[in-house]
Amino acid sequence: MSPAITVSGVSKTYKSGHTALHSVDLEIARGEIFALLGPNGAGKTTLISIICGIVNPTTGTVLADGHDVVRDAKAARRKIGLVPQELSTDSFETVYATVRFSRGLFGRPPNPAHIEKVLRDLSLWDKRDSKIMTLSGGMKRRVLIAKALAHEPDILFLDEPTAGVDVTLRRDMWDLVNGLRAKGVTIILTTHYIEEAEEMADRVGVIDKGRLILVEDKAVLMAKLGKRRMVLTLPAPITAVPAALGEWDLTLEDGGRQLVLTFDTKADHTGIPSLLRRMGDLNIPIIDMDMTRSTLEDIFVGLVSQGAAA
């Protein structure tokens, strides 16, 4: 089965001379949720805009469901729904009218039942006759999502869809995403809420300074780059790691009340048994021990930091 999205050698250099993307290659499978992560200005929105046909690439090609987004733009756009970051829509239209009009823009025949379902799923049905200018910011965000879904796209882009919105909308949004994925819709999202990517995504891409520095299955990424931490809580704070424990890479946290060992779970030797024996020999008491794993955010920050240092 061919990919839903194929990006080949795509770069973007603006007239100012700024290069926003450097030769990006990417394939996104049908029906997957792909999370694109990166700091502000990394190139996330530029890449999405190129795939959606809003911005032309300087070099390279993009296929959406097999359609070239430049040479066959109309057919490609019909396959794509986009929820942009900006709250831009016709303030004087009603909710129902603007969503219905959005469906017609893509050449889809009228389908009141589908429009109603989308509005109900997004808790907008009661606001269907309200002018958009009267809605709160969160409600306007819901309208943007409804517009993107009006023409029943096979590929949905969510560019920071829950930034600055309330918890209720965020929950509704991810319930909707799960339902769309179950129907086979391919979903590409950018988000600052990395815990959402960790929970929802099948694969993760990390972009920084216009370069796609990593694309990996989320579970593989966390197994490969994730670390575990053993936190040992002491009965009283200490000012420094005891010299006798110098062979272990220990740090102090919580004002000296915790000794922390970070280790690779796949290493031949974690050092934990010998550390605990040495602490027993030295009569260093422990009142609690806890294990935690690295989060996707920890991994992301580490990757971007490595890129900045390179």
Could you name the CATH topology of the largest domain? Rossmann fold
Which regions contain 5 or more consecutive residues with pLDDT less than 50?
A: none
**What is the arithmetic mean of pLDDT?**
85
Query: How many angstroms does the end-to-end distance come to?
Result: 38 Å
What structural category arises from helix and sheet content? alpha/beta
Shape: elongated
The CATH class label of the largest domain is: Alpha Beta
H/E order of the elements? EEEHEEHEHHHEHEHEEHEEEHEH
Strand count, sense and barrel status of the largest sheet are: 6 strands, mixed
- Strand tally is 14
Q: Label the CATH architecture of the largest domain.
A: 3-Layer(aba) Sandwich
Number of helices: 10
Polypeptide structure, described:
By secondary structure, the chain is α/β, with parallel strands linked by helices. The chain folds into 2 domains: 219 residues, P-loop containing nucleotide triphosphate hydrolases (Rossmann fold, 3-Layer(aba) Sandwich); 67 residues, Alpha-Beta Plaits. Helix content is 33%, strand content 26%. It contains 10 helices and 14 strands. The protein has a 6-stranded mixed β-sheet, with helices on both faces. It is elongated. The mean pLDDT is 85.
Short description:
33% of the residues lie in helices and 26% in strands.
